[in-house]
Specification:
Blueprint (H helix, E strand, L loop, with lengths): L3 H9 L8 E5 L4 H13 L5 E6 L2 H9 L12 E6 L5 H14 L5 E4 L18 H26 L5 E5 L15 H4 L5 H24 L4 E5 L7 H6 L7 H11 L6 H12 L5 E5 L5 E5 L23 E2 L2 E2 L7 H15 L2
Parallel strand pairs: 1-2, 1-4, 2-3, 4-5, 5-6, 6-7
Antiparallel strand pairs: 7-8, 9-10
Helix pairs in contact: 1-10, 2-10, 4-5, 5-7, 7-11
Length: 343
């Protein structure tokens, strides 16, 4: 396990010969904000940094704090792009604009989202809000921005995608994809299940994209327990249980880290790993990983009668530590997702 000092030293050594292009969703608060600020600090502002979020005032205030290189012709740029990532139509429009003007993207960091064990609501597009932010939006961002990521890799530069949520999540309930059954139950069962299942969804999502783009690194990472405003909302069990909420938060407090410490490990993980899929823990350690061979058709590209098709812990038939998905799960979730987010 690398120490904070070790990862800080590694991050400080990051000095690409080119001006990196980095896109951050959810970069105006919490872990996303700290991640953007750390990237700007370690690159000394010599980067094209794009923050995607809803709060323009917060985004522009963050950008104003970035170090500014003296060479104005170096190609660096810092910008905020307004987008409500809960709506897939907004994401598609935003990504279309980015593709039109960005020749490449080196880093795509997905941190937008919220978590609640009690509240269930739908977006104007009819999607569960938690799943929309924690899963469907991330699929749309990745699939839409793959062309400039591929161009970066083809030019010999880094091309890496990171989803910050819960690497090595639980097995996905393949009998209730989208969680319609769970939401029909009472006492916040649907909200709690969406919070938990979305981490497993992200595992399968990253496996799928890594298999189709074997030269790009796809990382799903668990940030740990971090002191952010959103984490208190997560533990909101309503007014009746508010004393219990305060007690639970007080118990978890000593195990939480600040966003600034958390993102040192997140950035370390982002800059590590050339290609394949990675599941990482809160200190950036690789819990499990797999590099894909494109010389054959993947097990989950079609229905399979392989005895390992539905077996948990396998990627393309290969055992992977820290992974609770299955090849069948990758296929079924992808089919479900394509149907849900189709235009």
């Amino acid at each position: 396990m690398p120490s904070v000092v070790d990862v800080q030293a590694s991050n400080a050594a990051y000095a690409p010969s080119y001006v990196p292009v980095a896109v951050f969703t959810g970069g105006t608060s919490g872990i996303g904000k700290a991640m953007v600020e750390a990237f700007a600090r370690y690159t000394k502002g010599r980067a094209h940094i794009i923050i995607i979020g809803r709060n323009r005032a917060a985004g522009e205030a963050i950008i104003a704090s970035f170090p500014k290189p003296t060479d104005t012709k170096d190609g660096w740029k810092h910008e905020f792009v307004s987008c409500d990532a809960a709506l897939m139509s907004n994401i598609r429009s935003t990504c279309a604009d980015l593709i039109d003007r960005l020749p490449r993207i080196n880093y795509l960091v997905l941190a937008a989202g919220y978590m609640s064990f009690t509240r269930t609501e739908k977006t104007s597009e009819g999607l569960d809000r938690q799943l929309a932010l924690r899963y469907y939006s991330r699929v749309v961002f990745i699939s839409s921005l793959l062309p400039p990521l591929i161009k970066a890799r083809e030019s010999g530069q880094d091309a890496r995608v990171m989803s910050i949520l819960g690497g090595g999540g639980p097995p996905v309930d393949l009998d209730d994809l989208g969680l319609a059954k769970a939401r029909s139950k009472t006492f916040g069962f649907g909200a709690a299940k969406a919070a938990i299942q979305s981490t497993g969804y992200n595992d399968l999502m990253m496996v799928y994209f890594a298999s189709k783009n074997p030269s790009i690194a796809f990382t799903h990472i668990f940030p740990g327990y971090v002191k952010t405003p959103g984490s208190k909302m997560t533990l909101d069990f309503g007014w009746f249980f508010k004393p219990f909420t305060w007690l639970l938060w007080a118990m978890l407090g000593p195990f939480c880290v600040t966003p600034e410490i958390c993102v040192e490990h997140m950035l370390y993980a982002l800059l590590d790993g050339e290609k394949g899929v990675f599941f990482r823990n809160d200190t950036g350690d690789i819990v499990g990983s797999h590099v894909f061979d494109q010389s054959h058709v993947h097990v989950y590209d079609s229905d399979s009668d392989s005895p390992t098709y539905a077996k948990k812990g396998l990627i393309d038939g290969t055992p992977v530590v820290g992974y609770n998905g299955s090849d069948m799960g990758v296929r079924l979730l992808n089919l479900h997702t394509e149907e849900v987010i189709k235009t």
